[in-house]
Amino acid sequence: MPIQVLLADDHQIVRDGMKVFLEREGYKVNAEAQNGQEAVRLALKLQPDVVVLDITMPVLNGLDAAREILHNAPSTKAILLSMHDESKYVLEGLRIGVKGFVTKTHAGEDLVQAIRQALRGITYVSPELSQAVFEAIQTKTDVREDPLTPRERQILQLVAEGKTTKESARLLNISAKTAETHRARIMEKLNIHETAGLVRYAIRRGLIRP
Amino acid sequence: MMGSYWLPDMSTKATPRLSNDLEAMYVAALQDYLRQHDESCLHRAYELGRRAVREGRSILEMIELHQNASRAFLSRTNSLQETVPVLEASALFLREAISPFEMTNRAYGEANAALQRLNETLEAEVKRFAHALHDDAGQLLAAAHIKLEDIARTLPADLRERLQEVRQVLDQIEDQLRGLSHELRPLALEDQGLLPALQILAAAISRRTALRVTVEATDSTRLPGKIETALYRVVQEALKNSAKHAHARVVKIRLWREEDLMCCSIEDDGTGFDYNAVSSSRTRQGLGLLGIQERLHVLGGDCEIRSAPGQGTTLNITVPLEQ
Do B150 and A24 touch (CB under 8 A)? Predict the structure, then answer.
């Protein structure tokens, strides 16, 4: 039985490239997702061996999708794809148990390498990113953990993406009132009281691209 | 109703402040108006006001001129009965004469508002470009990389090496796009404020070019977004000038605060230039300086440019913090 892989990236052209590459290496890409939420749903339903998640995705970013998948299906190996300037999320990813970090431009050989290592329980970081990780550890510029729950973080991402409370509620299958309560909790926890401030915070946390 | 009065000819008496010509014409027109009450005289007042605006006279000079002119006429009146109509008529005349100043003032405010809107539109466009440059193009580059890697697997070693060279070029393209995107859209500006953003800009330019840029600041509090953006863009433009036109080696940027004024000086050791010649020219450099001035004027700020051939260039910028 070949290793099952789920690919999540909002750019189809990138998914297609990775899929061809991985299948030629003998892996089976059994699902593709365009955003983090879809990735979580498919991962929990299909239980693939490996999930490959782009860090920047709409609705739910790759880091938080990995958090949710690893929380509910801890044996899954999660690998994150990162652009060069997203290296600051690597530390946070390591903390939540992500097994591989691959620069997107090397999502061929490097990705295969990362999957191979992850299946053996070894964490792999692309050489281009490892330098940034060492620097982050040395200078301790790592952003401290935010006080939000995963659900609140997702609401925050949706707010920052410009969704209304109603739209957010529909996307998450919760009532508008619950979404509104989450939003109020977020503002209270972060002590930020206007939407512009929430957007800035979300950018800083890497929930959305500016 | 006013009648006509005998009035002396005042046109030979000149005040030193304004050109004799404008002064004389003003006195003559006022005199005619007080005599005849003709609307055409009011029109002459208006035209004189327009001329004063064109010549760059201040509104205060204009009022002083009027006071001098009307005082002479008033001194010739003998009773209150005579004085009141002269006062009323000359006030009407003055109103006509200074209305061009009012219009200019209004137009200035409107132009400023339009410029500000234009700046905001441009910033939004720049955001879009930065996104397209970096994120969208970045994804396509990633896809190209993956495909090339896929092709490389089927190739013999020597061809694989040549493909590797192509990938190195793609890496360089990505580096450049990322650099450009960051210059267009300095994330640090929104996130951390003016000083950190300028420090990052200085470091990036020092790394990429032969220019050494230093930033010193005595104040790093956050300023209103409009001001931070304007100052950042102004420094960016000034650095472009220093590198491209002045061939400078060192640029010193200083930021400080004087009560309600934010001050910034940008000093380079470049070739310098003849300010008058350049600022009136439509060259890239001339337009750049004009752009700097306009950006600051919109915020009620100003930029003093000191330069001479062989003497380097210093920009002294001030922006009021109370908008």
Answer: yes
